[in-house]
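User: Hey, quick favor. My workstation is busy. Could you predict this chain's structure for me?
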Amino acid sequence: MDKVVKTFSAPKPLEPVERPTRAEAEEAVRTLLRWAGDNPAREGLLDTPKRVVKAYEELFSGYREDAAAHLGTVFEEVEGYDDLVLVKDIPFFSHCEHHMVPFHGVAHIAYYPEGGVVGLSKLARIVDVFSKRLQTQETMTAQIVEVIEEQLHPRGLAVMVEAEHMCMSMRGVKKSGSSTTTCRFTGIFRDDPAEQVRFFTLLRGGR
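Assistant: No problem, here it is.
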């Protein structure tokens, strides 16, 4: 299996846009169906525009969510625990912003608490918020890091995302099974290579 490992800087915030009406969105789907060479008025496609728009509401619901809000509650009564917290193998599905086809995989998040911890499910929700937008894997990784850093101020944070991109598997070079890995480290993880080794060892099932 081919693997690409990348590093990158944080993205700029999204700018608000004016959304079209549902009717305009459905008409856009009909236009694409005609462009593909089919008849949107035939029985099998008659309700497809409505179904596509409804599906898009779910697939791209991340645009309507504030990721930071999921990290608003910090639990400080953890009996003095200040060692690593790792949530691994968080599954996600997203869509490439270049071709609007899916990419999917898993995210791993580890951090050293500073003053408290968040509910473990909240880290998974952060992944969901950013994956349910048109994305690049690099940007999504940076966004996850950015919001956790801003809200929790951990002593160290490690995020790794592994994914297969359908824009490489279904079209273009058509290399099914190839995967891309993106990583970003802050604090302790960035400054101490031994902590990076510990992170990767725990991910692969080591002790």
